[in-house]
Amino acid sequence: SGTVIGLGFMFDSPYILILGVLLAPVMAPIVGTSLGIILGSTRYFFRSLGGFLVGAFLAILGGSLAGLITRLLPPADLLQVTQHAQVRWAAFVVIAIGAALTTIFLVQERRHPGIPSVAVSYGLYMPLAATGFGLGSGIPHLWPDGLVLFAIHLAWAALVGAITLAFMGFRPLTVFGYSIGGVVALLAVILLIAFFGAGLAVQG
């Protein structure tokens, strides 16, 4: 998935990007992370998060391979990769809807969460592949910005999933459940502020 998305960045083709997102795995670990927040279980939280981060590393690796190819071949306009390394508020809406529906479908076990999971994959794998693409190609600002944007989107998806579980009747079993949820929310806000601050510093 990361390699195909990286190729989509290289050819500046949204069609290849869509194919790359469709190849991404179901975002079940994100729901597991949300469940870890609700249960207040650090073990379950970090196990789900760790499983997802393995895939995230592979997505960065795939994007970096495509970035290395651009050193040999003249790239296109690279508009797509630049856009997917920047904060866009529409992405937060798409991720929220996708995370909520993925959580509902997985908990109810009535429908496969493939379609809503694609929305979450789009918000998470695009900045990851952009990060790798920046590392491989040497294009500035793609590599820390894409990674920070991924962290913001990840925290947002996990928080929306936890809120969805709460509306479905799940409640934190311990005070730690509320605490870890607050930490995730605070982390998302801090990263968002830092992202804009870093961007203004770079422009200055």
What does this structure look like?
- By secondary structure, the protein is mostly helical.
- It is 80% helix and 0% strand.
- The longest helix is centred in the N-terminal third of the chain and has 29 residues, at 42-70.
- The protein is globular and about 55 Å long.
Main beta sheet: strand number and arrangement? none
Distance between the termini: 35 Å
Averaged pLDDT: 85
Number of strands: 0
Structure class = mainly alpha
Q: List low-confidence stretches.
A: 200-204
Label the overall shape: globular
Q: What fraction strand?
A: under 5%
Backbone CA Rg: 17 Å
Count helical runs. Answer: 9
| Secondary-structure element string | HHHHHHHHH
What level of helicity do the residues show? over 70%
Please sum up the structure shown.
With 204 residues, this protein is mainly alpha-helical. The chain contains nine helices and no strands.
Distinctive features:
disordered C terminus; mainly alpha; globular; single chain; 204 residues; 9 helices
Describe the secondary-structure layout.
Layout: H1 2-10, H2 14-22, H3 28-39, H4 42-70, H5 79-83, H6 89-108, H7 114-137, H8 142-167, H9 175-203
Helix pairs in contact: 1-2, 1-4, 1-7, 2-7, 3-4, 3-8, 3-9, 4-7, 6-7, 6-8, 7-8, 8-9
